[in-house]
Automatic annotation (TrEMBL):
SMART domains: HhH1. GO terms for molecular function: DNA helicase activity; hydrolase activity. This is Holliday junction branch migration complex subunit RuvA. It comes from the Bacteria. Homotetramer. Forms an RuvA(8)-RuvB(12)-Holliday junction (HJ) complex. HJ DNA is sandwiched between 2 RuvA tetramers; dsDNA enters through RuvA and exits via RuvB. An RuvB hexamer assembles on each DNA strand where it exits the tetramer. Each RuvB hexamer is contacted by two RuvA subunits (via domain III) on 2 adjacent RuvB subunits; this complex drives branch migration. In the full resolvosome a probable DNA-RuvA(4)-RuvB(12)-RuvC(2) complex forms which resolves the HJ. InterPro entries: DNA_helicase_Holl-junc_RuvA_I, Hlx-hairpin-Hlx_DNA-bd_motif, NA-bd_OB-fold, RuvA, RuvA_2-like, RuvA_C, RuvA_C_sf. It comes from Streptococcus moroccensis. Residues 72-91, 107-126 form the Helix-hairpin-helix DNA-binding motif class domain. It is found in: Cytoplasm. Residues 148-197 are annotated as: Domain III. The keyword Nucleotide-binding applies. Belongs to the RuvA family. HAMAP family: DNA_HJ_migration_RuvA.
Length: 197
């Protein structure tokens, strides 16, 4: 089992990042790959959780131990797999998530992709009172990237599709952001906030 990896960030895609350490490139699925954009070709530390299945060995990465702890709590719930847990973490509203669980707000919880009423109820049952120490993180402030064809918005929509959001939801969001200029990371954060309202 791995706890973390230190190495150079060599690749960022909509679904994962690649960290090179000891001459090997580790493919790591993360909640918001574009949150790492400012660290491309730099050394970084990513906390890890390994999931071993019959057909795959997968690594899931996190910026800090709190995010990893939240992920582990989420995947302990019946009906929530690693991909769904990453989609929940990507919303970057950990305090809101904890509040929704403690207040039994099923409507809020079912706004996450692939989380139905039954799974939301199971989340409340399994996690109520267990994740109170996890706080909401402040979004990082980055200068917007100049892009004439809005490649950053396309990347953000691709990343959200990888998290399980439906094309219908993404089309509305893309239309809302057309004509704006921002980073893929910020588009994802803003879009997730819109979807959670």
């Amino acid at each position: 089992m791995y706890d973390y990896i230190k190495g150079q960030l060599t690749k960022i895609t909509a679904k994962y990042i690649v960290v090179e350490a000891g001459g090997l490139g580790y493919l790591i699925s993360v909640a918001n790959p574009y949150a790492y954009s400012g660290q491309l070709n730099q050394d970084l530390k990513v906390y890890l959780h390994q999931v071993i299945r019959e057909d795959a060995h997968s690594l899931y990465g996190f910026k800090d131990e709190d995010e990893k702890a939240l992920f582990l709590n989420l995947i302990s719930v019946s009906g929530i797999g690693p991909t769904s847990a990453l989609a929940i973490i990507a919303a970057d509203d950990n305090a809101g998530l904890v509040r929704a669980i403690d207040e039994k707000n099923i409507t809020y919880l079912t706004k996450f992709p692939k989380i139905g009423k039954k799974t939301a109820q199971q989340m409340v049952l399994d996690l109520e009172g267990k994740i109170t120490s996890v706080g909401s993180k402040e979004p990082s402030q980055q200068a917007p990237l100049a892009s004439s064809d809005n490649h950053a918005l396309d990347e953000a929509m691709e990343a959200m599709e990888a998290l399980g959001y439906k094309a219908k939801e993404l089309k509305k969001i893309k239309t809302f952001f057309e004509g704006t200029n921002d980073t893929a990371e910020n588009y994802i954060k803003q879009a997730l906030k819109m979807l959670m309202k």
